[in-house]
Amino acid sequence: MVLLGLLLAQGADIRLDLKAYRVVSVQQEGRSVERLEAALDAKPGQLIEYQLSAQNTSDKPLRQVILVIPIPASTAYQALSAQPLQLGETLVTPDFSFDGGRTYGKPPLKRKVRVVENGKEVEKEVEVKPEEYTHARWILPQMAPKQTVLLKLRTVVR
What is the DSSP letter of 1? Predict the structure, then answer.
């Protein structure tokens, strides 16, 4: 599995670090707990957590910072795993794309499809399944000087 990263942010003022971890269940003191291991490789069915660290390296606040985690085609997004980000009083919830990052929206995402009903071709709106998502995006209204944020989401290897 190839782990690729395409990240959007405000140029040289942002330091980005995208890491992939394999989520492993281990027994600890008689109960099952999760452990993260570097995802150097992954097999179908394994859970991968992507973590994007973004730091404002400048001495000034940045506005409307767009951070994107692409969801590799070899994986399927795990519903509800992209965590909202609390920035002071503001809760930044992720938007998702199913068309390679061309359009974004809040779940449930919808797409138009053409189907034949009673011998006629009609256009219907259908819900896009989370495992069809291709990107997750957070739009931060502001990042303070030197501030670092951590964004996470999980996928299952196909």
Answer: -
